[in-house]
């Protein structure tokens, strides 16, 4: 089983996140980079499948040089090797161009299963897995809450508003996972040391047959026209409960016509 | 006015409220056409779509469309985009809606915008990013604008359209049929509205204290006809099912009213609810960051305040 886990480095949500005023893209220097949380669940799921089925787990990330920190974390958790797509030409890529570039790399390195988090904490578009499935002609098994891999086929529980759907598909498949699926392991000291020796292949766009005209800010299918900090919410009324807190809250709701 | 396709969200023959919102929004920018994907359209559903302005209703009633994950709906919409050359396609910014939008964007070589909270001339979208910290205007530069709009962004307003029905047949590719839904498992959630499209959401957090105590939160929700949500602390503790988690790794909600009880308001939670129009917070800790967002806050024990609030609401109904 050849499993590729896509991980993204995102700005830490505990720090201030900004867009760049020059080109309206994410300011990667403003905040500390961390592994997108849901992608850690994807790494864990890949490792579990490997442990049960055998095979190899490759980490794939697209991002600037400092995204190697993200790769190291996944390798320390137990992934076997990594591919880092890094090229200045990719700066400003939107979801369409990102999915195109990642699909080109996936075609080059080969896969039975691609696993990633259902969304990133920065852009939160939630479209990448569906786009990769579309571009690769692979089965789309997204929003997985549980994954079971059999002979050449895979079944997931797809989380829905009413419960879940049981979905079955042949491999190759693209799987996105939700937080409930597992509990990601912490890298052990041994894992951290071992990660330093694991192979990391860095690719520029030319190495993966990525057409420069399809990626980067100039090629993006959508654009941020302008942005501004959200105006602070007007200070609300805060009352201390003196035994009538519920009544006062009801008065407030009535004044806003909610009751 | 140019045609705008609106993908209908429906369950058991009923049109969901978010679709009425999208039709209302589409009417301000063009002529809305509703697209019904899958079997089960009813006369009532057609009447409802027409009531909110659908001039046309495209009906693709093939069961194959809903027996597979997402891809068939994207193929149906792509076929309509090719045949009708609409000015834009609107879908609901639900998890599935966004996936459909993503695949459609690739099929039609068009840009896509997700989680729009408003849409103005030229299909310039308003978005609220980084957990509500930054407001963005964005637009599609290539192809047909495909926009996923968050539920509760627009108040639905009725304005009759012709509602002319047109049957559509779609030939699905083998690729679209790869992932097959074998079984749908419905988990009991009573008569409450769905979390992501509810106009009012009542959420409980660490302060609720136990799974049993969530009945206090449910009581308040039911008095308001609201959905129940939970913070990550509460779902991690196993007090409430994960699919009701509001936050960065859970659902994003944007209701008219959000009531947070026993929730401190960590970034993780704020990222999922900060665009609510009105926020009410109940928490014992006067320093809880949730009070920075609250339009109205009660510093007090939710186990006292929430039952009293529920009783008052039921009394005043």
TrEMBL record, chain A:
Listed transmembrane segments: none
Cofactor(s), by name: FAD
Q: Which GO terms describe its cellular component?
A: cytosol
Q: Which UniProt keywords apply?
A: Electron transport, Transport
| Residue ranges of domain Electron transfer flavoprotein alpha/beta-subunit N-terminal in the record | 23-212
| Subunit description | Heterodimer of an alpha and a beta subunit.
Belongs to which family?
Belongs to the ETF beta-subunit/FixA family.
Q: What is this protein called?
A: Electron transfer flavoprotein subunit beta
TrEMBL record, chain B:
- Tell me yes or no: is Disulfide bond among this UniProt entry's keywords: no
User: What are the entry keywords?
Assistant: Electron transport, FAD, Flavoprotein, Transport
Q: Name one GO biological process term.
A: fatty acid beta-oxidation using acyl-CoA dehydrogenase
Q: Which family does it belong to?
A: Belongs to the ETF alpha-subunit/FixB family.
Q: Which residues form the Electron transfer flavoprotein alpha/beta-subunit N-terminal domain?
A: 4-185
Q: What does the entry's cofactor note say about binding and number?
A: Binds 1 FAD per dimer.
Keyword Flavoprotein attached: yes
Q: How does it assemble?
A: Heterodimer of an alpha and a beta subunit.
Query: What PROSITE patterns does the annotation carry?
Result: ETF_ALPHA (PS00696)
InterPro entries, per the entry? DHS-like_NAD/FAD-binding_dom, ETF_a/b_N, ETF_a/FixB, ETF_asu_C, ETF_asu_C_CS, Rossmann-like_a/b/a_fold
Give the protein's recorded name. Electron transfer flavoprotein alpha subunit
Function of the protein: The electron transfer flavoprotein serves as a specific electron acceptor for other dehydrogenases. It transfers the electrons to the main respiratory chain via ETF-ubiquinone oxidoreductase (ETF dehydrogenase).
Q: Domain of life, per the record?
A: Bacteria
Q: Which Pfam families match?
A: ETF (PF01012), ETF_alpha (PF00766)
